């Protein structure tokens, strides 16, 4: 099935390796399918590790010249890349929806808002300031220089096939690093389209390569190749842990954005309608497949029934279908495994006393569609309270008071996003400070933007993306002790 693109040259079947568009040496390919019905919408090469090494060598060769450009030159190229992404947002959205399944409006939203990371870091390139510190001894000065870490490897997931790339490539290239990106094999077409636009923007050969192929051998090569200085990864905690272990040999720099298990708390003083709207956005956006999704919804006892009723009414109104159909607000899940996981969470919750208020099963639309689901009377003992569901399942757990809900919310090895709705200012400050999470949304269900530091604590990751802090992971500090002058 072909996508109706205004610029068909954005849909490519080759990988970008050191400025060359290449197929696999042995002709091996990966089919890219529409999760709606499994139709093949494109193919990409399944490259061998030999070709990956060429990309790494090219990135290593290109890095000094890229770093030697003035910050303003790098900024101008990044700015052109941003402009091209915005100008081609409609086509990029069609490609994204085609391979990932999310509604077209959400796809376009992802592209436009995450292009902001390229724009922001184009600006930040010019603000990589060092320091001059008074010397410890007479006649000495302490200089602090910020220098690029070098060649970076990026591994990105399928849930935000476009946005997870710009938030890594933006700061890396701004800092003077080069990057080799391995996108998720389910969604490589968005990554390759971004690479086409990077080339058009004037990103030099070797500075940004996109390699498609098998995750494990590529991950292994990134972790052990001495030319790779840093690995930046967004994906599961399990794979993050593996990368950390494998990269230990070379003491590689790591940025990890891993799984979450976000608590979404509604206190009795909250604006209940606003809380329901926030929960809808946080829970059901991208069919529940975001790492900052509300995973556990805690509602104070006195407002629990009213909240559940309003949430069910809104969730019932979600429109399932192909992402390009007008009015559709929920697409299919990414694959069969994702459906099995939510089925397991539903079955476990119902077995242990959960009360099904909506959905709970595969949709009559077939494929990997799952009905928007709400379950009440959920407890901490259920799987859904412990694991990331990554699907449109809203479990409601009631709580007594602040201390009770903070203990419950923090009872997790994860600490990425968290949310709560309340009006009392004292409560807002206490709860925001007490939640063990890298991010707290207060009276909002949406957090991410390029001006804010995105990232997790505990087993949700290392480092931050976005904001002035987001470039630090791509810079090394060098101390120069200047004496005898
Ligand atoms: P998800 O559950 O979101 O698919 P994964 O962590 O499995 O999370 O995948 C995220 C990204 O990591 C994808 O690009 C995938 O191909 C890649 N990946 C999976 N396993 C490995 C591995 N062993 N080494 C490196 N990358 C991997």
UniProtKB/TrEMBL annotation:
Keywords: Oxidation, Oxidoreductase, Potassium. The active site is at residue 257. GO terms for biological process: gamma-aminobutyric acid catabolic process. Residues 21-480 form the Aldehyde dehydrogenase domain. One of its GO terms (molecular function) is succinate-semialdehyde dehydrogenase (NAD+) activity. InterPro entries: Ald_DH/histidinol_DH (IPR016161), Ald_DH_C (IPR016163), Ald_DH_CS_CYS (IPR016160), Ald_DH_CS_GLU (IPR029510), Ald_DH_N (IPR016162), Aldehyde_DH_dom (IPR015590), Aldehyde_DH_Superfamily (IPR050740), Succ_semiAld_DH (IPR010102). One of its GO terms (cellular component) is cytosol. Pfam families: Aldedh. Belongs to the aldehyde dehydrogenase family. This is Succinate-semialdehyde dehydrogenase / glutarate-semialdehyde dehydrogenase.
């Amino acid at each position: 099935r072909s996508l109706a693109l205004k610029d068909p040259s954005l849909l490519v079947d080759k990988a970008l390796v050191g400025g060359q568009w290449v197929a696999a040496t042995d002709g091996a390919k990966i089919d890219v399918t529409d999760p709606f019905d499994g139709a093949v919408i494109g193919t990409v090469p399944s490259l061998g590790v030999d070709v990956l090494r060429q990309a790494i060598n090219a990135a290593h060769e290109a890095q000094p010249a890229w770093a030697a450009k003035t910050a303003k030159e790098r900024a101008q190229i990044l700015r052109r890349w941003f402009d091209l992404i915005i100008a081609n947002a409609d086509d990029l959205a069609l490609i994204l929806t085609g391979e990932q399944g999310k509604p077209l409006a959400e796809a376009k939203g992802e592209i436009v808002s995450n292009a902001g990371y390229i724009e922001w870091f184009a600006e930040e390139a010019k603000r990589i300031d060092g320091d001059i510190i008074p010397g410890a001894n007479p006649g000495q000065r302490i200089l602090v220089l910020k220098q690029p870490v070098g060649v970076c490897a990026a591994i990105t997931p399928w849930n935000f096939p476009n946005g997870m790339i710009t938030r890594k490539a933006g700061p890396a290239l701004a800092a003077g690093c080069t990057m080799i990106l391995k996108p998720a094999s389910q969604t490589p077409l968005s990554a390759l389209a971004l690479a086409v636009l990077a080339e058009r923007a004037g990103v030099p050969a070797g500075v940004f390569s996109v390699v498609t192929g098998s995750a494990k051998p590529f991950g292994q090569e990134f972790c052990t190749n001495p030319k790779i200085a840093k690995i930046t990864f967004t994906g599961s905690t399990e794979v993050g842990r593996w990368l950390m272990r494998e990269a230990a040999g070379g003491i590689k720099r790591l940025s990890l954005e891993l799984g979450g298990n976000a608590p979404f708390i509604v206190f009795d003083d909250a604006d209940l309608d606003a809380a329901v709207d926030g929960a809808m956005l946080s829970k059901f956006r991208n069919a529940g497949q975001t790492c900052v999704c509300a995973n556990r919804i805690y509602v104070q006892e006195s407002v629990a029934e009213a909240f559940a009723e309003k949430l069910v009414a809104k969730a019932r109104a979600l429109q399932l279908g192909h992402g390009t159909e007008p009015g559709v607000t929920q697409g299919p899940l990414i694959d069969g495994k994702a459906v099995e996981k939510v089925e397991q969470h539903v079955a476990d919750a119902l077995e242990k006393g959960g009360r099904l208020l909506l959905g709970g099963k595969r949709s009559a639309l077939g494929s990997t569609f799952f009905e928007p689901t709400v379950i009440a009377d959920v407890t901490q003992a259920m799987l859904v309270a412990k694991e990331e569901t990554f699907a449109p399942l809203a479990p409601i757990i009631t709580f007594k008071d602040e201390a009770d809900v903070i203990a419950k919310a923090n009872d997790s090895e994860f600490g990425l996003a968290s949310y709560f709705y309340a009006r009392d200012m004292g409560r807002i400050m206490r709860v925001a400070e007490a939640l063990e999470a890298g991010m707290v949304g207060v009276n909002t269900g949406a957090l991410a933007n390029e001006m804010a530091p995105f990232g997790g604590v505990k087993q949700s990751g290392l480092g931050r993306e976005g904001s002035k802090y987001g470039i630090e992971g791509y810079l090394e500090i060098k101390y120069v002790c200047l004496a005898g002058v």
